[in-house]
Specification:
Blueprint lengths: L1 H11 L9 E5 L2 E4 L4 E3 L11 E5 L5 E4 L1 E2 L5 E2 L19 E4 L25 E3 L2 E2 L1 E2 L1 E2 L5 E5 L16 E4 L14 E5 L7 E9 L4 E4 L13 E5 L10 E5 L4 E4 L11 E3 L5 E4 L2 E6 L2 E5 L4 E4 L2 E6 L2 E5 L4 E4 L4 E4 L2 E5 L4 E5 L10 E4 L2 E5 L10 E5 L2 E4 L2 E3 L6 E3 L5 E3 L2 E3 L9 E6 L7 E4 L2 E5 L8 E6 L5 E4 L2 E11 L5 E3 L2 E11 L18 H7 L8 H4 L8
Parallel strand pairs: 1-4, 2-5, 3-22, 4-23, 5-24, 11-19, 22-25, 23-26, 24-27, 25-28, 26-29, 27-30, 28-31, 29-32, 30-33, 31-34, 32-35, 33-36, 34-37, 35-38, 36-39, 37-40, 38-41, 39-42, 40-43, 41-44, 42-45, 43-45, 44-46, 45-47
Antiparallel strand pairs: 6-21, 7-8, 8-20, 9-10, 9-21, 12-18, 13-14, 13-18, 14-17, 15-16, 15-18, 16-17, 19-20
Length: 546
Amino acid sequence: FAAAQKAVRAAVADDALPKGAVQVVVADGTYFLPETVTFGAADAGTELHPVVWRAATKGGARFTGGVGVPKFKKLKPDDPAYGRIPEVARAHVGVSDLRKAGITDYGVIPGVGVSSPKGAMELIWDGRPQALAGWPNEGFTGIAAVPDLGKDADGKRIRATSFTYADDRVGTWANEPEPYGNGFFCYNWAAATVPFGKIDPATKTVEQKGNGNHYGFSKAGFWRGINLLCELDSPGEYYIDRATGRLYYWPTTDRTDPEGALTVTKNLLAARGLSRVTFAGLVFENCRGTALEFRNGSDVALEACTVRRIGQRGVTFAGMRNSRISGCDVSWCGAGAISADGGNPDKLEQANIRIENCHLHHYSYTAYTYAAAVAFHGCGVTITRCTVHDGPHTALIFGGREHTISYNEVHSVCIESGEMGAIYCGRDWTLCGNVIRGNWIHDIYSPRSQPNRAIMLDDGAAGIEMYENRFERIGEGISLSAIGNRIENNLFVSNGTPISVWQNWTKPEHYKPSHYTHKSLLDRFYTLKVHEEPWKSKYPYLGMID
């Protein structure tokens, strides 16, 4: 990379070079990146000489942050972990010595790794991230009881840091060195990965270690245990003994996989201040953190790229302008596929970021909530003609102004959570100029007690136009609140409730300070100069709020 970057810089600076793109053609093959490749302003193209980094064959050039899995050996009775592994699995489990292969940094536990600077090392096998050994293998277990600690001096409920488990099997984890729970411990719209400090079979109690769960616990909670060698009992499960550096795995195929990998590199590519550069037809795969991160640049494009098997987010556009992600496939990302932010929402200056014709799927497999397939903020982001499916929570989550969501197909999302929308926004009266048009949103079910929606305008979300959409086979079509929203010319087919309305005000006296949907609404509103241009002309109804 360094040599290619040096050559590009020289070519772009050459005044004698004829007008046209400077291209780096990457030959087919797999290229291991032991550390992040960085781009800066010095790597930018110009108006006369834009820069293109492209694969010789689309999909043929692969940049990976994963190393091959050291050869598995058969589990033997003298292995120190033999007695902890379920008997049903012992004939199938392979053992790999990571230390002998020079792999000593395992990062944090997957699930914790979605927000950790270190990230988590994961096992990739048969083209997919494998499952950390845990229980239940499918679905969740419950919470039997939660201690009542009363209320604090402000009258707020004191959140419990322990709970009584519902299934005696949890008690068998008492001697596991680093047990965790992953799931919806209190609300079915807020997930967490919680470290367990003590598991007491006598009292059937689990105690939280540290501050792993913001909302505490509830009898309505549902969760599963992870990082448990004693639960390695089915194909596709693995466990890393961090004390001995040994990897235990029950393969989904045989014990050799030429594509098998352990993710070791944090990020694959990071760019600051880059402009007039296109990356085309390349594959980026197998890393612990965010694969591609672009900040404070302009006129950057990802075209027909594949981003897959990523520990955190696939692609981040932050502070970008006039940039796009087009025709890309982003999948198997632990904490969302794409995030985009740019422009100035207070001055209504648009970033002109486009995410178009992309396939985004199997996202947020360790971060169950609020890690959307696309999370976007700022002003002037367009999501159009994309297909989004297979996610545990929302598909699109946004804040800011004058975004467009158009002609997308969204289905099979919110599959683990409740009280959520395939498209979600909330807590802002000034989400002005956002348009949701011509989308087909279908097969959004409600597996929990609270319904999921196609579009959820939550906690005072206002300023959204929704028209010419088709909503099909959904618990609720649109959940509507607050002011300045418009629903027109949509088609609702086989929805439990087409449109639900809550906390709406039909008379001035209906609105009372005690009924604020969220305390930050007025604070956010008063930061804007709604009586001045361009707000006064574009969104005059905001001037009616006193």
